[in-house]
């Protein structure tokens, strides 16, 4: 992987940093199937999440991506083993597991106005009571596909396609420019 | 003259004087001024020239409806034309220039048009410039273009930034006047999430100026209190300087927030376009006062009565020392009172109505010593660039002047029209209110959502409720209705009670005096900005433009930047009068967003400069850039076209790369090719349907080139398919095809073959893929070491997993060049390191990277087709001699039936051949071959066209492919291809495989 990039102008309304390497496996299958659910649990220690949710701890977990697709998160170096383990345990069911770790780039977006930055680019309700820890959203970020979830209050993990890393970094930087806080989520920051 | 008063000005901070310039003149205003109030304070009443006649134009309004006060604002990177002075907040150092005048605002040559107005009637352009036809292009249009437009177009790059913002709420209230505030509060009390937006910098709308009491307190106090209450509620978002610009389907609203227009020194974006999803919308957009149509109503100094009192109350500015008020209603009396209370003179109130007894307002006026003249109006206004007096007439008569009154301002009021724009944008209907002579929202015909439910409710003056008490009641009801509509339970809190003095009914006046003759009608303006007069609309009606939409376009009424906010109703009434029909029968024109013009920057948002378009970069992008790559856009990807060395032309580089690849070793970054994993028990069956070939018979470890057609039989993509295991295939697509073909597969799986067990995953970006091409390719890989890539171990069209120089790789032995060639996939994160390793081992083997143009030449030398060159959406595989790739054993595949239709099997279809110029020159790409005779349109008969054409350095001549009528049957024939600039190329039809026809080079 190339050198981690940090983006965002001085005085920007949120900090933008490239996320550390993250192992990712796309798993497609019938999410109600017991074999698949057991395989996911065994590979990640987490249950298959409900629609729009992510179950994760310390960078290992599982994201709901669509009615028949999950994204398994693990350490980048663990992917071959996890993939092998999944393929073994799923050999008797119709399922597809592939490594997509290098197909993606990731960013950590943080700060009290991180929500503002995302809401400028994504057609998502980012009000704190509508998007919270535990949720995952696949969406459009300006002109490209992206997904994000929360790592904690005011901290987002965002993934996009690798080829669009520079664009996403640039567009996050533009949207986090100094003086561009929207001040809409918190009355204490806002004032009118 | 207009001037600043010693006292008054509730919005001013007189402790903060500001300097600004207008047409180069240095002027002073205060913090809190609009540019309009500051100009008036400096006696700059004349602010522009009208569009057609270049008539002097003064400020007429005090808000968004202003038609005249448009200026060029700022300069260089912050220059913007057509900025309304009434909504532009004054800031230190503001610079403004008036528009549409030459050589100066005061003395304008174009004003001659006003004397020619007899010759410039409605529809003048249509009538005049239609004949003779050729003159339009060469004479008329250039002339009209020069005189068109009000402001100048910006020349410098916009120095500011812009952004979008997505927001969601249960109830959105548009308009922060008394009605909007109350509706927001009522809705918020139910617990709904409420967004309240106000286009100006102040809450309360007209309330504080127009007076009255709420629960016994002045309106000012009510506004302060309710704003504080709302601000304290966690479920309410309040935004000023944010205009509800447009209402669209399903409660989608565009909001236009002006962040720095009033404070350009602050950092951040200038405008923010809010993209709002609202559960329910309350339109509390207020009302706009109508002008009266009398001769000379456009002379600077004639203003709306409400604007005159706004300037006094809000900004401590008087429009004139002596102001004549002319009205058809009681509301305008407030203006007379405000003026008199400010110590100014009101020589007369001309009231067109004849009432049996004085209204309360009339009585009050008389008590203040103001002369009230019932049944009277203005015959004409005296003055040129400024009002000097009015001639008074009887409203019932034809305009005989009874008396002349000297004055320097006229405050007119023709009644009030609700702002129904936002209600109407998405289909809300209107009803004609006879008593108030205006259109107001028809609450039974609201804009509707997906389930047919109303998603908007009007409130206050925007609903046609003009009295403070009714405004508050209506707002409360709207707030409750909105909350209820989104599932909240309204509370039983009583709304506050508003009180204002009793008013007598207004009487509609569409022309003053009602019997005005042609001379007066020709000077009675309806649309100030576009110069449309009562006489123009009447002429349009007379000439048969009876539909309001036609009359609008014919006369240009309401088509200026103000979109007829002042002129529409008066124009409709005039049209109705001319047609002898009623106003509701004539109807209104369509209200379209935005409410007032919004900046192009706000619409573009962040998408400019570096992030105008997402550029896709391969893992080796930076290396390419550092090594002279000239880029070719392929989809959103950037691929190296060629790596140009110092002192070398692009063409030289392409020739060098092409030759070197055939003679030594070339590296191509093939990472952009699409890679789709197709897996499942039905994967083979699925691919048999998608490709024209048989894929299910492919053995694991083998590759096969496949063609993919649309249902209509046309070739849409091609690529090499590798069978990974019994259940799994990897399908390569073209660079531009990855997402499209992925979607194509999902569509068939989800809609047609939903019961087939197949999953698809797009893994294009997981891999960096490098084509290692040329006679030294195997040696290079052997030097990397780690796996057996001998001819025996890895034959042509086979693949293997393994390791090369410690990299985990998948090696495909496939060739798009005709050379010995391997395409090697590594994890994208390893792509650059692997490329570097190849460059190192290739050093002694003559390695050079090559770009897409060399790739094209190499494949053309071999007669390989390229999707997008040989295909254009109308070409089928059979046209390209690809029958060998179409399975005859299969019952079906996508496109099979279509390819059996008569047009597709027609022997007259043009077929692929090679073309060689007799001179060795390069045929122009896309050139047509001409045959004998002409077609039905008298054009030369076409018998073929060039689809690919290059200079081949390996063959030392121009080579081309083309589609030619009966082409394969005409080998050796010479065709003529007319080129550009008179040249004609002669080319011989040859076999499309120019190089190594037996495929010996790849099979080593």
Automatic annotation (TrEMBL), chain A:
InterPro entries attached to this UniProt entry: SoxG (IPR007375), TrmE/GcvT-like (IPR027266)
Gene3D superfamilies: Heterotetrameric sarcosine oxidase, Probable tRNA modification gtpase trme, domain 1
Pfam family, one: SoxG
Name of the protein: Sarcosine oxidase subunit gamma
Origin species: Roseobacter cerasinus
From TrEMBL, chain B:
Domain FAD/NAD(P)-binding: 170-422
Domain named GCVT N-terminal: residues: 620-890
Stretches assigned to the Aminomethyltransferase C-terminal domain: 911-996
Record InterPro entries: 2Fe-2S-bd_N, FAD/NAD-bd_sf, FAD/NAD-binding_dom, GcvT/YgfZ/DmdA, GcvT/YgfZ_C, GcvT_C, GCVT_N, Sarcosine_oxidase_asu
BP GO annotations: tetrahydrofolate metabolic process
Keywords: Oxidoreductase
Any one GO molecular function term: sarcosine oxidase activity
Domain SoxA A3 stretches: 522-605
Pfam families linked: Fer2_4, GCV_T, GCV_T_C, Pyr_redox_2, SO_alpha_A3
PANTHER family linked: AMINOMETHYLTRANSFERASE, AMINOMETHYLTRANSFERASE, MITOCHONDRIAL
Family membership: Belongs to the GcvT family.
Stated name of the protein: Sarcosine oxidase subunit alpha
Organism encoding this protein: Roseobacter cerasinus
Gene that encodes it: soxA_2
């Amino acid at each position: 992987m190339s050198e981690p990039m940090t983006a965002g102008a001085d005085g920007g309304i949120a900090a933008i940093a490239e996320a550390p390497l993250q192992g990712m496996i796309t798993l497609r299958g019938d999410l109600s199937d017991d074999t698949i659910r057991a395989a996911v649990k065994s590979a990640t220690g987490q249950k298959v999440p409900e629609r729009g949710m992510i179950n994760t701890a310390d960078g290992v977990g599982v994201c709901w991506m669509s009615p028949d697709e999950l994204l398994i998160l693990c350490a980048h170096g663990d992917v071959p083993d996890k993939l092998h383990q999944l393929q073994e345990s799923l050999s008797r069911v119709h399922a597809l597991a592939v490594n997509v770790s290098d197909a993606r780039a990731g960013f950590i977006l943080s700060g009290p106005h991180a929500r503002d930055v995302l809401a400028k680019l994504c057609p998502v309700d980012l009000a704190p009571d509508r998007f919270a820890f535990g949720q995952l959203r696949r969406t459009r970020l300006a002109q490209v596909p992206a997904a994000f979830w929360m790592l904690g209050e005011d901290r987002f993990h965002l993934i996009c396609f690798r080829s669009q890393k520079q664009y996403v970094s640039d567009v996050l930087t533009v949207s986090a420019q100094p003086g561009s806080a929207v001040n809409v989520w918190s009355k204490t920051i806002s004032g009118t | 003259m207009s001037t600043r008063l010693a006292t008054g000005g509730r919005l001013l901070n007189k402790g903060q004087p500001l300097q600004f310039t207008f047409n180069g003149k240095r002027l002073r205003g205060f913090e809190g001024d609009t540019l309009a109030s500051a100009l008036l304070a400096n006696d700059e009443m004349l602010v522009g020239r009208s569009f057609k006649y270049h008539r002097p134009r003064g400020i007429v309004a005090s808000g968004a409806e202003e038609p005249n006060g448009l200026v060029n604002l700022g300069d260089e990177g912050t220059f913007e034309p057509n900025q309304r002075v009434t909504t532009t907040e004054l800031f230190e150092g503001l610079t403004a220039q008036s528009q549409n005048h030459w050589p100066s605002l005061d003395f304008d040559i174009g004003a001659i048009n006003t004397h020619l107005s007899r010759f410039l009637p409605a529809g003048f352009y249509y009538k005049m410039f239609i004949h003779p036809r050729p003159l339009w292009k060469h004479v008329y249009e250039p002339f009209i273009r020069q005189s068109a437009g009000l402001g100048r177009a910006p020349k410098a790059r916009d120095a500011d930034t812009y952004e979008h913002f997505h927001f969601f709420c249960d109830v959105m209230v548009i308009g922060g006047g008394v009605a909007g505030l109350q509706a927001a509060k009522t809705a918020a009390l139910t617990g709904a999430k409420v967004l309240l937006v106000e286009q100006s910098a102040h809450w309360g709308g007209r309330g504080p100026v127009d007076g009255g009491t709420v629960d016994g307190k002045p309106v000012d106090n009510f506004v302060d209190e309710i704003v504080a209450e709302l601000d304290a509620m966690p479920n309410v978002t309040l935004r000023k300087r944010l205009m509800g610009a447009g209402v669209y389907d399903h409660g989608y609203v565009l909001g236009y927030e002006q962040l720095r227009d009033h404070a350009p020194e602050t950092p951040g974006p200038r405008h923010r376009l809010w993209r709002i999803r609202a559960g329910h919308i309350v339109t509390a957009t207020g009302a706009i006062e109508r002008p009266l149509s009398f001769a000379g109503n456009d002379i600077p100094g004639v203003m709306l009565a409400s604007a005159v009192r706004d300037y006094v109350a809000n900004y401590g500015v008087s429009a004139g020392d002596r102001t004549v008020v002319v009205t058809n209603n009681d509301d305008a009396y407030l203006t007379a009172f405000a003026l008199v209370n400010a110590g100014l003179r009101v020589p007369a109130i001309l009231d067109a109505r004849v009432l049996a007894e004085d209204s309360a307002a009339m009585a009050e006026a008389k008590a203040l010593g103001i002369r009230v003249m019932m049944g009277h109006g203005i015959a004409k206004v005296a003055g040129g660039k400024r009002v000097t007096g009015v001639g008074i007439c009887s409203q019932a008569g034809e305009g005989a002047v009874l008396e002349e009154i000297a004055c320097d301002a006229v405050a007119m009021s023709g009644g009030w029209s609700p702002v129904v724009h936002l209600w109407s944008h998405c289909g809300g209907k209107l009803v004609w209110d006879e008593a108030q002579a205006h259109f107001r929202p028809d609450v039974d015909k609201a804009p509707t959502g997906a389930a047919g439910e109303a998603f908007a409710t009007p409130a206050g003056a925007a609903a046609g409720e003009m009295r403070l008490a009714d405004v508050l009641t209506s707002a409360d009801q709207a707030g409750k209705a909105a909350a209820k509509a989104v599932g909240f339970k309204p509370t039983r809190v009583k709304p506050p009670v508003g009180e204002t003095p009793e008013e007598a009914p207004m009487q509609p006046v569409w022309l003053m005096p009602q019997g005005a003759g042609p001379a007066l009608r020709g000077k009675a303006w309806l649309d100030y900005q576009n110069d449309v007069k009562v006489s123009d609309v009447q002429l349009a009606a007379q000439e048969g433009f009876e539909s309001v939409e036609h009359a609008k376009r014919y006369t240009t009424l309401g088509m200026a930047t103000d979109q007829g906010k002042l002129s529409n109703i008066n124009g409709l009434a005039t049209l109705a009068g001319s047609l002898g029909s009623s106003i509701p029968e004539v109807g209104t024109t369509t209200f379209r967003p935005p409410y007032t013009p919004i900046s192009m920057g706000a619409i573009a948002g962040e998408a400019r400069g570096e992030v105008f378009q997402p550029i896709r970069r391969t893992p080796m992008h930076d290396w390419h850039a550092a090594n002279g790559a000239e880029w070719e856009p392929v989809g959103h990807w950037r691929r190296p076209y060629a790596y140009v060395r110092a002192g070398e032309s692009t063409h030289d580089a392409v020739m060098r790369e092409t030759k070197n690849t055939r003679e030594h070793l070339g590296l191509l970054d093939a990472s952009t090719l699409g890679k789709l994993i197709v897996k499942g028990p039905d994967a083979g069956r699925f691919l048999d349907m998608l490709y024209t070939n048989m894929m299910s018979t492919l053995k694991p470890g083998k590759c096969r080139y496949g063609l993919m057609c649309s249902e209509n039989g046309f070739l849409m993509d091609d690529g090499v398919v590798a069978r990974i295991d019994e259940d799994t295939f990897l399908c390569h697509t073209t660079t531009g095809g990855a997402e499209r073909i992925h979607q194509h597969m999902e569509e068939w799986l989800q809609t047609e073959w939903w019961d087939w067990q197949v999953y698809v995953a797009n893994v294009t970006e997981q891999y960096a893929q490098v084509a290692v091409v040329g006679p030294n390719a195997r040696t290079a890989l052997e030097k990397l070491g780690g796996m057996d890539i001998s001819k025996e171990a890895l034959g042509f069209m086979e693949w293997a997993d393994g390791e090369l120089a410690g990299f985990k790789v998948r090696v495909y032995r496939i060739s798009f060049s005709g050379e010995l060639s391997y395409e090697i996939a590594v994890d994208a994160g390893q792509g650059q390191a692997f490329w570097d390793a190849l460059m190192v081992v290739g050093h002694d083997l003559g390695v050079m990277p090559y770009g897409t143009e060399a790739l094209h030449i190499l494949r053309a030398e071999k007669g390989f087709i390229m999707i997008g060159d040989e295909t254009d959406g109308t070409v089928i595989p059979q046209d390209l001699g690809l029958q060998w790739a179409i399975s005859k054993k299969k019952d079906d595949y996508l496109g099979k039936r279509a390819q059996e239709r008569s047009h597709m099997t027609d022997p007259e279809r043009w077929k692929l051949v090679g073309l060689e110029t007799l001179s060795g020159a390069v045929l122009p790409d896309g050139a047509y071959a001409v045959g004998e005779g002409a077609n039905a349109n008298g054009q030369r008969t076409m018998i073929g066209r060039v689809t690919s054409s290059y200079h081949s350095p390996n063959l030392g001549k121009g080579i081309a492919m083309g589609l030619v009528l009966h082409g394969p049957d005409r080998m050796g024939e010479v065709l003529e291809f007319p080129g550009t600039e008179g040249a004609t190329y002669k080319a011989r039809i040859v076999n499309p495989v120019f190089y190594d026809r037996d495929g010996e080079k790849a099979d080593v």
